[in-house]
Amino acid sequence: MRYLTYSPEETEMIAERFAEKLCAGTVIAFRGDLGAGKTAFTRGLARGLGIKGPVTSPTYTIVNEYLSGRMPLFHFDMYRLGSSDELFDIGWEDYLARNGVCAVEWSENVEDALEDPLWIEIRRISDTAREIIIEGGNGYADLGL
Q1: Taking the model in full, what pTM does it have?
Q2: How far are the Cα atoms of 48, 113, 123, 125 from residue 6, in angstroms, in the given order?
Q3: What domains sit in the chain, N to C, each tagged with a CATH number?
Q4: What is the pLDDT of residue 33?
């Protein structure tokens, strides 16, 4: 699936609608440059899961947990991790077992540890425009948004 958005609010709206179709245990692996819109997409996911309150990038904390929705959202930023071994050191398997949605920014740093993720690539087309490409992962390739 491919979408074009022209503001962070449109990116969040696509993600919000997308989140309504997610099930527990989904791993979302983001690809995209710094400032592409990965955190904006995650804010929309949170809203679509019924999570209230601010959603921020976990750049310095590695993971932010949001537990108030219909299922938990675990928002990871793997930018500072050097390998998948470090991912397991922070309890990756425990997060997977908690039956939430794991949204992983900078997933390429831990790609070998992700089993059948849903890939979301966000490409910057201009200062405001983004192309969002969603593919793979447990039959989510055609969600009909």
Answers
A1: 0.89
A2: 20, 33, 12, 9
A3: 2-135 (3.40.50.300)
A4: 86
